[in-house]
Structure formats: structure tokens, C-alpha cells
Amino acid sequence: MSDLPSELKYAPTHEWARLEEGGIVTVGITDHAQDALGDVVFIELPDIGAQLNAGEEAGVVESVKAASDIYAPISGEVVEINSLLEDSPETVNDDAYGEGWLYKLKPANVDELASMLDAEGYQQACAGE
What is the domain class of 9-127 according to CATH? Predict the structure, then answer.
């Protein structure tokens, strides 16, 4: 598995979350997830203004091999989506932790981040798959 950014928090369902300045949380899928999916051809993102609960389905990533649900790693309101992915979904394959982010949440409770996995915990979860 490639090096995982240590500043991120991870969900067992292969999403990552990064707390930004101003309290907004950026969400994406992990490099491990995009690698398992293969070439991403379409991404369905949540609507801006949608209220998501932690663990709730937030969208779908489709690849040439499979479609996989995206889950909200924490609860909150969607405040931005990555519109770059509408025309270039393969950005998730190229840069899962950077330009390939999926959406941004205004967290309902930022403390939910503390219950997510750190990089080491996520690596252990993936090793047990």
C-alpha cells in the first residue's frame, strides 16, 4: 500500500477526511480504493446542501470494473463538490488525496473525526480484507 497521508482520518469503507482551516472537512476516497476499482469513469456526488449522516451513502464511484458506494465518514452538510470530476473522473485515479477530492462538508460535530482511523489503523484494516 502506498504511503498514507498521516494528517488525514480514514473510514473502514475507504473514505478519507481532512479538517481544513475554517472547520470545513474535505472528503475523498483512498488511493487503496481507487486502485482496487481501476479506471474511474463516472462519479455521482451528493447535492450541495444535502444533510449527510455518518455512514450514510453519499454517492457512487463507477469504474470500468465495478460501481462502489461512497459513504459519509462524518455527519454534516455538503457545502461544495469537486466539479472537476464531472468531466475528469479519472482525476481520482491520478491524485486521490489532492485534486481528486470528492466533496466538502460543514460538520455537524467535528468530534466525529476523532472516532475515525488514523493512517496506521486504516492500513491494518486493509490488511485484514
Answer: mainly beta
